[in-house]
Amino acid sequence: MTALAGGSVGADRPVEAGRAVNPFLLPAATASRFILLITITLSAAGSSFDLVAGGSSSWRTAYARCDGAADAAAARAHADALVQGYLSCLNELGVRRAMAGFGAMALTALVIAAVHVLRPRITIRRQHLVPADPRTHADLYETVRRLAGREGLRRVPRILLDTNRRAPGGRAFGHYPRYYLRLNIGTLHRGRERGGEGVVEAVVLHELAHLRNRDVDLTGLTQAAVWVFAGLVGVPVVVYTALRTPANLLDVGTRTLAASVLVAVLAAAVLRSREHYADVRAAVAGGRLPDLGSPPLPWLRALLPLHPHDDRRMRVVRDPGLLMRWVPGEALGAGIAAALGTTHLGVVLRLLLPASDRPAFVVSSLVYAIPAMAIVLAGAYRSTLLALAAGRRAPRGTAAGAGLATGIVLGLIASPARNTGSWMAEMGDSPVIAAVMALVLLSLCLILCRWLTTVATAWLPAARGRTLLPSYLGALAPAALLLGVGMHAWSEAAMVALHAGNIALGVYVLFAAPFDAALLTVLLVAALYPLASWFRQQWPGRGREVHLDAPSPVMLPPVRVRPLLALAPAALFLVLGVAGEILTPDGILITLLHALGVRPAGDPLNVLLAQTATLVLIFVVLQLLAGTAVAAIADGGRAGLGPSHAVLAAVTTGAVATALLFGRPLTAFCLYDPAWCDVRMLRDGIGNLLLAILAVGLLVTLAGAGLVGGIRALADLTRKRSGSRRHDVRPGSLWVRGPLALVTTVAIAAWFAVMAPVWAVTWGYASPARPPSRQASSASAVPPPGPPGSGTARDACAQAHLAGMTPPLGDNFHVAWATAFARLAESDRPFLVTIGRADYALARDARFTFRNSMAAVDLYCGSAVR
Questions:
Q1: According to the model, what pLDDT value does residue 372 have?
Q2: Same domain, 505 and 569
Q3: End position of a domain, from candidates 209, 231, 251
Q4: Which residues does the annotated region (Disordered) include (predicted)?
């Protein structure tokens, strides 16, 4: 395969449909499936040993000891000492769980690597392989050197002969940096017979293609993972459970068998995929598919073949685009691996870092989102490149999204590592709620996969460098952040809905969880990431060796990106708003309130809150109209950029509306009561308002863009359109993109400057702002708690969980936690009573910093209250 080259601009040609597409421009499916195999192997090993280490009670006995000690000490210990003692007990428990789970994962990885390193020596000895004599087989050495040079290999592998195998064949094996090429003696005999010309070259070229594709180490590690998982994890776990805790044998055995089958299926998929890529690579170098036949296989290999059938291999060689399809099975496995690992890692981190409750689950979701997105994103990029090369519309990823959602649900069901029980039990108790939340997850995964193809459509034509790999790696970070945030928000919402038996509450938590300065920033950056490709676009675009049957580069169709169009609604609103402000002395918002007959009474703060509520309602309409209009005009999702344009239009329109409609009432309020109008009030008020605008803008704009996409999809069903869209619109000139890039950079810096203090408060590094001393907090109106035992711990914990969903900005945060602590003080658990009575007074007066108390309450409610 010749190296990728851009070529001269004049030599670039447009893409042509029906040509053989180059599958080596992006990460191969072999690498994706290998990442999936290793992730599931290590996650299953950690979860299995965690289950065994927990004993017959699955860690519940250990949690109960900490809970009992906390209840016993509640009568004589101060609240702060009580919290610290309880968290210390849980921290020791977390260390034990970490040693069991993480130790098993590390040991499994080390043994897999050791087996891979030692296996070539064992293979040489067991199969009695001997080096080929350079004097006797000089022509063979010359053939291997010549073909290795054709493949672009820097090092020629060492040639070994298997004198016991009479059938033609060979194999490349070894590990970095020493590789071997094993040839059956039958290959040499067949090459000397009449009609056997080219057999040796075909076999050698195919095996050298494995080296060229760098899949030899992947093959060795894959085979080692299967045997190590069975010998180090599967069998020992089942035997230990049968001897020590036979009551858990059915549960442990079922989970271990399912994990073993999944590992074996993935290993077979890796081995089959590598053969296809080697066949295509050898065919590009001028070789032909080795005529090895299809000998009868044992029933196990027939059920789980390690090599593809010859017919399938021939079809892939004729049409390499088959390797670039988006396989839903990969997304299914990615979902299983992400959910299985996130649950176990989140619980352990929660115990190791009990004072930081939210970061533990967010970090665990983000950690496993990286390999999961590496798999799903690679499929999206491959399928999108195939569609662009054929002049077709990018895939929508419906099957992949369904597979990802199904995998996440299956992974949660298979995961036993939760202190409150298993997801399987929770879903079994409330099947209707579980089904509704699963449909919500399906919708989120479909949106995510559609966004992945949007990113690929935007960035593939704008990619620079010799390969397309940097474009893929650049999209991996925002994709992993998006999946991590979404998976964290959905799992938390699903658990709340299942515990409370309330679907509406779960949906509320789903949208409240990302209502956080840091997480909302992630969602905003991810939504707008495709638009960043516009700054990289060149005209004419750089050519790529998209087709295998011609070395000359061709151009991928450039995306029609119109960010200035997305800014048009905000610019129009700005002009109209300035004119309206001049014509209305009282301000647009106040004039509108009066026109609607609204006469907010009370102090200026109540007036301001009423105006703010009306303002948000106005933004809903403005953003929906702006987003829908831009989505309809800016390609309407044909090139995949409709939703991104819509989000940009919504956010900019909302920001302009904030400055116009809210500016004069805020100024009047500050002049009326300067004591309230200080930096803290501005931070809390404007910060809350900005978060609300952005959250509403994201939701309603995606809804508007989806409406436009749905109408166009129905139109496509009613009439067929022939030919591909023309993509001949020249991107904006540098004089337009330069100032826009500068404005974007300033806006990003301003956004992070505003969000930095909000992050500090949200994540517990700073205290929420106290109201001025001249006016008491609204939390002072919360009634004091009643006598202990007048309420239940379950209801009190539910109230505390709802308080945890309240953004820690403004007075509502203190009101929510004052109410929660009052309910905790009325519960029937001594630990909760002590914490509630101690912190109620602090929450009532809005003079507290109790992240440790909040974490302890959450952990206690999850462990002792069921």
A1: 95
A2: no
A3: 209
A4: 774-794
